[in-house]
Structures are given as C-alpha cells and as structure tokens.
Amino acid sequence: MLRQNFGAGPYWSSLAQALDPVLDAFATGRTAVVAETSTRVLLDLLGWRGRILRSSLLAAGPGRSLRLADLAAATGARVYLCGTGGMTYLDPAPFAARNIPVAAFRPPTTGIWSTARRLSSLCALAALGPDTLAARLRAVADDHAALGAATAGGGPLARER
Fold first, then answer.
1. Is the whole model's pTM more than 0.85, yes or no?
2. What is the pLDDT tens value at each position of the chain, 161 positions in all?
3. Distance CA 14, CA 17 (A)
4. Which residues lie below 8 Å from residue 128, measured CB to CB, with a gap of 6+?
5. With the C-alpha atoms ordered 151, 155, 158, 160, is the resulting torsion angle positive or negative?
6. Across 23-84, where does the E strand assignment appear?
7. Burial of 118 (0-12, 13-18, 19+ CB in 10 A)
8. Which residue, 61, 54, 64, is CA-closest to 92?
C-alpha cells in the first residue's frame, strides 16, 4: 500500500529502503515497537540528532494533564504545544504551576501544509525528500518558538486564554 500511495514520489526509492526496519518491527506484534521504530526512522531521515526519552522512565503523576506537565518539566520543555483535540480537555493549571506555557499547535495553512491534517509524513518525504522537508519543519518549529516566547512573555496570545 505504501508503494501504491507514495511510489510516484521522486524520493520514494530511498524512502522505501529506509522503511525496512519498520516493516521488520511489525513482526514483533507489539504496537510500541512499531511506533518507536517508525519514529526513529523518521527522525533519522530528517537529520534530527536529539535524545529520545521513554516516558516510562520518567517520574510523572497520575491523570492526563498532570502527567503531561510532569513529563514536559522533566524534559526541560519551555512551552507545551497542544493539538486542537487536546486543548478541549487539557487542564493548564499543572503546566502553569511548572511555569510551562501551553500553546495551541496550528499547522501552517499554505503550501504543502494546506492539507497537512490529511497527509502522512511519508507523503511529504516521498514528494519533497528529507532535506527539504527537514528545512520546512525547522521553519514551522521556529515560528512556534516565537509563539512560545510571546506566550511566556505575557503577549497577546497569553491573554487570549
């Protein structure tokens, strides 16, 4: 199915080879292994060189919002980006208690991002290639870093909540 959906992309051949470890992970029958493997492959393709932490190894309290706030604090987060679905149930109080502003994540609405909610990262990788996609993701991250700085500083976004 992947080849059928993304095989026409100019970068598909290199992407298909990079996905071999993900296909192997399916043989384990464990969703967590597939999720971790696919995440690592994606991050490797994009040239990300950060450190991956397992939440199970970090101290965190019970409950959705408290757990997320504890994990954000344990990782040194300066802002917690929350999707629109999560914003409906997230309690910002545990984040505020840890001095971590909560910012709504909104993908850009132009270019390749105009249909981002309906696309897979594989589609973007097959069409753009890892280098171009990584550059575009860095631009989005930089925009959100500016958003976080405005929110943390009490700018207009902080007052909207």
1. no
2. 888 888 888 998 888 889 999 999 999 999 999 999 999 999 999 998 888 888 888 989 999 999 999 999 999 999 998 988 889 999 999 999 999 999 988 777 777 667 766 667 888 888 889 999 899 888 877 776 665 555 555 443 333 33
3. 5
4. 11, 112, 136
5. negative
6. 80-82
7. exposed
8. 64
Residue type (1 letter), 152: A
Burial group, residue 11, by CB count within 10 angstroms (0-12, 13-18, 19+): buried
81 three-class SS: strand
- Describe the chain by its helix, strand, coil percentages, rounded to 5: 65, 5, 35
Retrieve residue 24's tokens.
């192997």
**Closest among 120, 110, 103, 114 to 161, alpha carbons compared:** 103
